[in-house]
Amino acid sequence: MGGSIKGWWTAGEDGAVAVYRAHLMEPLLCIAAVCVATYWLLPDTSGHVWFFVCDWILFAVPLTIRHRRAAIFTPEEFIFRPVFGALLRVPLAGVKGAEWYECRRRIRLRLDLLVGGRIERPFHVRSLDQIVKRLREASYQH
Fold this sequence. Notes:
Strand order of the largest sheet: 1-2-3-4
Strand content: 25-35%
Distance between the termini: 42 Å
Radius of gyration: 19 Å
Helix content: 40-55%
Structural class: alpha+beta
């Protein structure tokens, strides 16, 4: 079972040159701070520590799963790994252009392809500027 979870968690990373994931530590620390502050501010909570621990776990698990989302670069491909679902593989030689933009307070990545038109995806990972820079460099090389 552990091998299959690890395989699911790291899908597409074989031969990766760079992997960019969603933020994890900042949201987890914010949740911890809220739980600790609530524990200290509410009266008579000393006997209910487990409530706050369970509350933190309840919010931390979805954030941890969200951390699976990644942008992966191999020497030949750009791979987008969503939280759930199949990998999106794009050959770097097929990228004509790339940019990110904000639409209704959500960050999206737009890839213009030589063949097949345009791909747009919600994209919440770190270092978005570096990702777009790598994609643009790949488009200039081909």
